[in-house]
Give the backbone structure.
Amino acid sequence: MKPIVKYSAPALALLGLALGGCQPNIDAPAAAAGSADFTSYVAVGNSLTSGYSDGGLYNEAQATSYPAILAQQFGKTGKGPASFMQPSFAPAQQDGSGYIKLQVVNGALAPVIPSAANSYLGEKLAATGSVLASGQLQLAAYSGAQPDNLGVPGISVLSSLSALTNGLAPYGLLNPFYERLLTAAEKPSKDYVTYIGQKTPTFFTCWMGNNDVLTYASNGGVASAADPFSNLTDTTRFGIGYRAILSTMSKRGTVAGIAANIPNVTGIPYFTTVPVATVIASIKANPQLPNAAAASLYITTGTGTVRVATSADLLTLTAQAVIGTASGTANPFPVGVGYSATQSNPLPSKYVLDEAEVAAVVARTTQLNAIIAKTARQNKVALADMNTFFTTVAQQGVAFNAVSNTAVFASGNLFGLDGVHPTPRGYALVANELIRNINNFYGASIPTVNINEYRGVVFPQ
């Protein structure tokens, strides 16, 4: 387990007094690259690498992505990149895909998602008006040279392979964040492994695999017919894909880098903000509900069984907007979705990760992390155990320069309004953990950043 990060000087001051009342200046070690060369740094990964936050990808978020922070800190070693290019949107479309904002709605704070119906959010979106085969809105094409931040929101190890290898669909036609990086000729044919292989880095970071479990989990264990990559990825195809990614970037163990493993996604605010016990207590205290004291929360499990929810089940963040609402069935509000004691109006499976599904997600994460660890060793690169790191953050929080930061939804500073992705401060924390591992593995002295200089969730003034 990792201790809470705290920075304090009193012990050093007391030691100085005990040695004669003089306190010598204690300087931080000079920044140095160790055995690594950061002059050409490339970041490979998914939404976490791109800087995706608050349910969207936009220029401000990209500028505070952990790769952008790393590139900045690498530069202090004298062996950093001269520049680090992000696939930014044009200034007139700086809000990219759009992102969730906190607004006062009917006198209460509420997360609001951008749409044509609430254009008052004032976001400068990059949507073209066209729709991809996946049903997602197409984004304005990126026209610059191939960027150094190759993070693609939504991508998994499975979808990074060619359609011939994964047996599924061409990803360049489905994912708007990947589609915008490709030429018209490349979209139906260029897979992500081939795309990242066009770069020749001297150092790389690779954080892949999250979506091989997260997409399934965040859909409540329900694979989407519209998304062929929405189930738990099997270990065989994951191994093929991950080995291809890491060997491509490390040039078979000759280029330095660091791989990060998959956090336990069941510990993020998306699954911890709406506890079953709290919901059941509110149901029993609802004066509008007939026989409320005997009522409970009924869910539909992944196998189609209807039963009372337990503390072993995890409700999604989106469930709070559905529980108790009228559904058009014979049991409208105040009985509401999930309230029915007759089990005729249960909460749909997509809003709950039931106990068996939780166990399946955790087990598959462990299996995939074993593949990541083995592949990192085979390619002679460092490994950051982000699974253990985020578990500790979720349990204990992080105190930095006397400022408390936690994994609590919205107010905890570290996670954004989608309940999944970090805020800029959360990404700064990620950058520091990667720096710690890089320093240990390559004998470097890369300085960390003050995470409190990066913002958390923006609250309306």
About this structure: Residues 1-24 have pLDDT under 50 and may be disordered. The domain at 41-265+374-453 is CATH 3.40.50.1110 (Rossmann fold). The longest strand covers residues 41-45.
